Amino acid sequence: MTDKKASLLIEGHDNVDFPIYEGTIGPDVIDVRSLTSKGFFTYDPGFVSTAACESKITYIDGNQGILLHRGYPIDQLASESDYLETCYLLLKGELPNKAQKEEFVETIRYHTMVHDQINNLFKGFRRDAHPMAIMCGVVGALSAFYHDTLDITDERQREISAMRLIAKIPTLAAMSYKYSIGQPFIYPDNELDYSANFLHMMFGTPCEKSNISPVLAKAMDRIFLLHADHEQNASTSTVRLTGSTGANPYACIAAGIAALWGPSHGGANEAVLEMLEEIGDESRIDEFVAKAKDKADPFRLMGFGHRVYKNFDPRAKVMKETADEVLKELGLEDDPLLKIAKRLEQIALEDPYFIEKKLYPNVDFYSGIILKALGIPTSMFTVIFAVGRTVGWISHWNEMISGDYRIGRPRQLYTGAPQRDFVKVEDR
Ligand code: SDX
Fold this sequence. Notes:
By secondary structure, the chain is mainly alpha-helical. It is built from 17 helices and 6 strands.
């Protein structure tokens, strides 16, 4: 709180003063909660100028292209840390010491298996079900298996739910893939670290021992890390709003998965690959850039633009470096889609339309190229995003539930019919 205030002069009304709060870094906020007592609402469709909560987890500066997790820059975490250590940081607020990290990693390792009855849930889906549809259903159903951790007022139960979700989401994700290709589910292997274990469950078979490349496992781990959290994005805000009603954590994460699925959000990585494949050749790039600029054409350059970043998405830079590393490791430096992506980025960044609208590649632009090189099918790309983001969702949920919060209930500008009397059908 500061003693700074904002004054609003509304015609025909007395001045209205609002308190201003300062954050550690970033814009101050104006507390407008008292406005309803003056008979007004604020109006901010899409929440472009609305801070919905206070948080200590992640900070983004869209103009500087800065992303901090509990104060640590994403590029340092991507090069120095790993996904589970970043999970600990997001959940608990500090980097773990050696003993804390070992305990956390072991706890996750020994909770990766799911209840065997959950296997039956998959059998209700058609084999061609989109894996995100399966994930929405199966993650939401977890609350039916864990009655022992549904008291959200109990800190220990909240912690157990968080660990279960982080540990089991990769297992469920791999199961949704295996189900779609008619292969048997592969159990987690406690000899493998988190990301190698995921690749094992995705591509292993009962017929032979998995041989996971450490380079590819590291790339998978970095992809999870780069997707871990991103402040109050659409899916995280969905998790918070769902959690504000007192819903159980599994239902909240299922709501986050559903929100992430949209092509404007987490579904963009799948849409980027489909777009690059549709472009097909560098000679067609100009045609697609023209479509993206044409107001009459709904086509957008997928993987470009961001509500907050009006500079480079710092995750996209790391993702681009990782794409080069992975494709080199796989001998795919000449991958045609990567060449189209790099040329498309170069053309777009030189085009006045994209420069004026500050449209830069976002986290989704290069991730799909890496995932495709890892052998992950396009339909699984958003599932991978959900696996990485689960820790961010549950960290925000826990931050909210462990503090003071109220049920989220926005208002509206009503432009519908004024009150009128009912007319019997014979008189209409
Ligand atoms: C993620 O919020 C997060 O943090 C999300 C995320 C996370 O980690 O959680 O970072 C993950 O969702 C990344 C974004 C992935 N989505 C895409 O790549 C889809 C393509 N991008 C867009 O649809 C769009 O840029 C959004 C949805 C990302 C942002 O939309 P905004 O902030 O509402 O911006 P806008 O739609 O108002 O666009 C502003 C202008 C418009 O033109 P005008 O009406 O001003 O003339 O820019 C244009 C748009 O038409 N524009 C694009 C464009 N994105 C915006 N034009 C062409 N191609 C694009 N990609």
